[in-house]
Design goal:
The complex is a heterodimer of chains A (about 250) and B (about 300).
Chain A lengths: L1 H11 L3 H23 L7 H4 L3 H22 L1 H8 L3 H34 L10 H28 L2 H18 L7 H5 L3 H10 L23 H25 L3
Chain B lengths: L1 E10 L2 E11 L4 E5 L6 H8 L7 E6 L14 E4 L11 H11 L5 H10 L14 H13 L5 E5 L7 H16 L3 E6 L2 H7 L2 E6 L2 E7 H8 L2 E6 L3 H10 L3 E5 L2 E5 L3 H10 L6 E6 L2 H9 L11 H4 L7
Parallel strand pairs in B: 3-7, 3-8, 5-6, 6-7
Antiparallel strand pairs in B: 1-2, 1-4, 8-9, 10-12, 10-13, 11-12
Helix pairs in contact in B: 2-3, 3-4
Classes of the chains: A mainly alpha (about 250), B alpha/beta (about 300).
């Protein structure tokens, strides 16, 4: 508990969580408002309200990576290890606090997006009742939290802000999409990549009311597993990275 | 008490710290002296468990750093005053440190008061001058009221007032019975601050003794004598077996106590115009001792000093 309190103080005595929250709200809720406002061809759906979730995901990962790389940048990681020599415990505490914060932002932006879509399109059926709809909204918090763990693990391994952030963004934005271009095997590999799994959990296996017609709205996620297992796969990936990061941090000179 | 046993640190092919063994006693200020790059900071990081030694151990009151429960209560260390998030306030920085070792929140205000930062406690630490950062770093070391204190080059870049403040502060800490270990590359500074010295060069121990011993050993002490009856004085001193050297119209005497020279002159009825102890410069002595162990010598040749126009 003490270590969680320490990391909570550290996180909230800098301005990055505030900016990150504002940016995530702007990106996700802003997109929901934009889509609801301009799209008059097809009925508003939960799937379309959550259009901006992936933008928010990038912001969350940048925030989480910076939470650890700035400690290396400013040397506060050494002050931390000096105060708490148990590196595993202190890094896990940081991961927990940042992941929880990311989860809260995720839940907030997901439901706020539905709320703003409902405000703009008051006639639309935006009630959340099917399993798909719950995954697409309440599931955002879980995906953001796990993504934050991945970002912290990468940040711990790379230790440099620019390096960690570029690696994360290039991987998520380019590697996982471009891999599908490899002839024959590309799409099969892509189906088993972690962020495809996260997408599968959030928007895969849609029910008929949320199926996008004529390219209106984002395509549904697709990956090699059912939504529930896809989330477990994504979480497992995060755990593996975290274990590697903790082992490295314990061995390495701070 | 800090005890290092055969401490070594290897970075690839370079041996930054080489089989270093020393003891730092409580109740005294111990200087850790060596030229830049001698391995002082590396040693301090190993003491704090930040870097793992390639060989050997270092113990604080009998325990390894990583075995300490709530280490800030045992060891306070200032390795770099800039190890603060620039957008965090001084108070917030101390608050998380205090929390990490379950120290009461009021300790934060107490240490801020001690170092005189109460008025700027809520300002962002990134805007602090070097002197203020240094004070904040010292406040952090005092949080847990520790028995052992480590400071790495604490006076580097400070103004004279700041240097004096730190020097007095360390003496106060040692007078309270604490173990104070201060690194520096300036012997003249250490001569004023430290009672004991651990001198290293290229990662190896050169000497461990008291500062007075080190200074006496390192610098030849001589006596300068001026007298209108220099010739008589010279023969009188010569009979006593002193070594003499002429320096203008005065005499430099070595191998004889200053009081004995005065007594001798009085016994012979010789007038003295000056009788003063002379000391070689500490810097010279330090360079002499660590001369072979400085890692990067400045190589200046006459060609470098020649004006460009004269070279054909």
């Amino acid at each position: 508990m003490t270590l969680l309190a320490v990391e909570r103080i550290k996180l909230f005595t800098t301005r990055s969580p505030l900016w990150c929250t504002l940016a995530a709200i702007g990106a996700v809720v802003g997109f929901a408002a934009l889509i609801s406002g301009v799209d008059n061809d097809s009925p508003a759906t939960i799937a379309k309200a959550e259009f901006g979730v992936n933008f928010g995901l990038m912001i969350i990962m940048v925030m989480a990576a910076l939470a650890i790389t700035t400690e290396y940048r400013f040397g506060t990681i050494r002050a931390t290890f000096q105060a708490i020599p148990n590196r595993t415990a202190t890094l896990l505490a940081k991961t927990t606090v940042v992941a929880l914060f990311a989860g809260v932002i995720g839940e907030f932006v997901a439901f706020a997006s539905v709320g703003i879509a409902k405000l703009i399109k008051s006639s639309a059926d935006l009630s959340i009742n099917t399993g798909y709809e719950w995954r697409a909204t309440a599931g955002v918090g879980a995906v953001y939290a796990i993504a934050a763990v991945i970002a912290i693990a990468v940040g711990t391994l790379i230790r440099h802000s620019a390096g960690a952030v570029s690696l994360l963004l290039i991987y998520v934005l380019l590697v996982e999409s471009l891999i599908a271009l490899i002839p024959n095997v590309g799409t099969d590999i892509q189906k088993w990549m972690p962020f495809q799994m996260a997408g599968m959990f959030l928007s895969g296996d849609p029910d008929p009311t949320n199926t996008t017609l004529n390219g209106n709205g984002p395509p549904p996620g697709s990956a090699g597993l059912s939504p529930g297992w896809a989330l477990a796969y994504f979480a497992g990936f995060a755990v593996v990275l975290m274990v590697i990061a903790l082992t490295t941090a314990n061995k390495r000179d701070a | 008490m800090i005890e290092a046993q055969g401490l070594s640190k290897r970075y690839g092919k370079t041996l930054a710290v080489d089989d270093l063994s020393f003891t730092v006693q409580p109740g005294r200020v111990t200087g850790f002296l060596g030229p830049n790059g001698a391995g002082k900071s590396t040693t301090m990081r190993m003491i704090l468990g930040l870097d793992a030694p390639s060989a050997g151990t270092v113990r604080l009151d009998g325990k390894k750093y990583r075995e300490l429960h709530q280490p800030l209560r045992t060891v306070g260390a200032l390795l770099d005053a800039k190890w603060v998030h620039p957008n965090r306030s001084a108070r917030a920085h101390l608050r998380w440190l205090a929390k990490s070792n379950k120290l009461p929140a009021k300790r934060v205000d107490e240490v801020l008061e001690t170092v005189g930062l109460t008025d700027v406690a809520n300002r962002r630490a990134g805007g602090f001058s070097l002197g203020m950062s240094q004070r904040l770093g010292i406040a952090a070391t005092l949080l847990g009221d520790p028995e052992v204190l480590l400071f790495d080059e604490p006076v580097n870049g400070l103004d004279p007032e700041g240097i004096l403040w730190i020097r007095r502060f360390m003496h106060r800490l040692a007078d309270e019975g604490r173990t104070v270990f201060v690194s520096s590359h300036l012997l003249s500074e250490m001569a004023l601050t430290a009672q004991d010295l651990i001198v290293i060069g290229r990662g190896k121990l050169i000497s461990q003794c008291t500062t007075d011993e080190f200074v006496a050993q390192a610098t030849e002490s001589t006596v300068l004598v001026r007298s209108p009856q220099l010739a008589k004085l010279r023969s009188a001193l010569g009979q006593e077996g002193a070594t003499l050297r002429d320096e203008g119209d005065s005499l430099v005497v070595s191998g004889m106590e200053i009081a004995d020279i005065g007594d001798l002159a009085a016994a012979k009825g010789l007038t003295l115009h000056e009788l003063s102890p002379q000391r070689g410069s500490l810097e010279e002595a330090f360079i002499q001792l660590t001369g072979d162990s400085v890692e990067y010598h400045a190589a200046v040749t006459t060609a470098d000093l020649m004006p460009a126009g004269e070279v054909n």
